[in-house]
Amino acid sequence: MNILPDANFFQKTMPQTEKNEYLLEVEHLSMTIERYEKGLNPIRQAVIRDFHLTIRKGEIIAIVGASGSGKSLLADAILGIQPKNAVVEGVLKYNNEPLSDKKKKELRGKEIMLIPQLTNALDPLMKVEKQVKSFLKIKNKRKLEEIFFQVGLDKKAMKQLPANLSGGMVRRVFAAMALASDAKLIIADEPTNGLDEEAANDMLRLLKMLAEQEKGIIFITHDIEAALKIADKIAVFYAGETVEIVARKHFIRGGAHLRHPYTKALWYALPQNGFQPFYPFQPSTTENSRGCQFVEHCPKAKTVCKERHPDLKTIHGGDKVRCFYA
Amino acid sequence: MQISQLIKTIMLRMIKFFSILIMVIVLSFTLVSFSPVDPIQSYLGAEMMVVSETQKEQIAEYYGLHEPKLKQFFKWFSTFVQGDFGVSLLYRQDVLTVIKERFSPSFWLMSFSWTLSGVVGYVLGAIAGMNEGKMVDRVIKTYSFILASTPAFWIGILFLIIFSVWLGLFPIGLGAPVGMLKADVTWFDRLKHIVLPALTLSVVGGANIILHTRQKMIETLNSEFIRFARAKGEYGFTLFWRHGFRNTLLPAVSVHFATFGELFGGAVLVEQVFSYPGLGQALVQAGLHNDVPLLLGIVVFSTAFVFIGNLMADILYTVIDRRIKPGETV
């Protein structure tokens, strides 16, 4: 009963939408968390510093970054569900309209949908069927069954409590929610994390399927290979910043064509590209830190890199990079 | 497989119950046998002066009071095993009859206050947990901490002063108006008499449930599925009703069942303060007058009562665990 598109499906390129209408625009997004360590002096830690992203309908943008780089908080910031002690700043636009906190609250679950990272995100005491059903505008049993069928879950699984489902099945439930919600923008937070290759590929197919339905997908992951399979663009995330945004077709040309030293390092760390070990330390950024975040690990670093913070600049082909020497 | 498991669990429970029961009986009997109170004196009361030494001797003979303690114990125990709890010296009635009669008011008192403290405690705890760190939470938390460290009898006296003496809203004590025939007592009379003792008992018992529910609510609200529920656009009361309520109610109820012991202990004190004619008061009387059969009877009864409460708590916990932890289905 494989209703999911086959593996070749990944290779087909998406038809580029001509209009310049962005579904979501994010500029200079930052998140600062205030916390108390020793004593009573609050420490302000910038977990997201200068994040940029634009996404169109039907587009999949992968945000690739190491664990602990603040990727999940990014999802929180876009959805407006950040922790209480966090301050979010920046310009967000949804369908060309400013996305205020109030607007976020209105759109959450309706227009913008999260596919959470952790499988314990389902209410442990509610049958999955009911949890998915709450997204349907018209509560229709046949429609519900159809959605479960689309994501590859049978009727038996519908009646279960989350504890009785495997990790892969729970992720399918998340996908079912995204389908049922009719959301235009889906933020998938590490949707393939902890899945075996087959289950992960199924999940990627589901994301691709959602994109086919004109939904914009922000695919947060640490797995570059997974990102390259389905994403139209790859945004590389390091220490709370977008360091490079590259179209997939440019990215796959290889390391020499990548601009940012961090992206290059990630590329050459892949097994098929040389397997060069690389353990970047994620700097803990306090608000007043100056200069490029990557300066300590950068082979090209000069004095200017320590003193000034590079902006994200657009280079030919529409890619963007945050480096003085790119 | 499933059924044999069930039988095994039940068997283990029964063994546990009976061993606890025997230990409690032996301990209680040992303690009362050290009592300096002369059972004959408390049996006769004011008539002590009128009754001759020979008659006293006959009474002692009749109840076997001169026999060695160990023999007395086994004599009581052998009849107890046959279901005969003996005769109360104090009430001159079958112990079972006394318990039956006395348990009814205690039962209403305890169920009233148990329900009240459960409902109010849960609601306050939930409100506090939902508003962690805010003013409401701080007020509720302080209130619970103060109450959790306040003795029940003191609250009882306080309530008596305020509501009965100053405001005159409720009777000062007893289970029914003084000098009224039992048949003439209306349910409204009984209700008026039960309010203050029940309130006292529930105020003290409620503090625990508030603090527990608050903690559980905070824990639940910090869990991943609540973060996701927020991401899905739920907030406020909907969020609580759909996710918070379901996930905190069962733990709260099971904790509440586990407080049966404290409830009974509290009832003993409160019934004393309000001269409420319940089982707790009978227990105190039995202890003070060295009425061994009645004392042991009530001890057995209350042990069973508390045991049932704990059993309910255990069962509920198992139910919760079954639902949350991966099971064998699928």
Task: Compile the SSE list and pairings.
The complex is a heterodimer of chains A (326) and B (330).
Chain A lengths: L23 E13 L5 E14 L4 E6 L5 H9 L6 E9 L2 E2 L2 H7 L4 E4 L12 H6 L7 H10 L4 H4 L8 H15 L3 E5 L7 H16 L3 E6 L2 H7 L2 E6 L2 E7 H4 L9 H9 L33 H5 L5 E2 L5 E2 L5
Parallel strand pairs in A: 3-8, 3-9, 6-7, 7-8
Antiparallel strand pairs in A: 1-2, 1-4, 4-5, 9-10, 10-12, 11-12
Chain B lengths: L1 H32 L5 H6 L8 H11 L5 H13 L13 H36 L4 H14 L3 H15 L20 H35 L2 H8 L4 H22 L2 H14 L5 H10 L3 H33 L6
The helix-and-strand class of chain B reads mainly alpha
Shape of chain A: globular
Q: Which oligomeric state applies?
A: heterodimer
* Number of E-type strands of chain A: 12
Radius of gyration of chain A: 20 Å
Which percent bin holds the helix content of chain A? 25-40%
Instruction: Please write the string of helix (H) and strand (E) elements of chain B.
Output: HHHHHHHHHHHHH
Helix content of chain B: over 70%
The total number of structural domains of chain A is 1
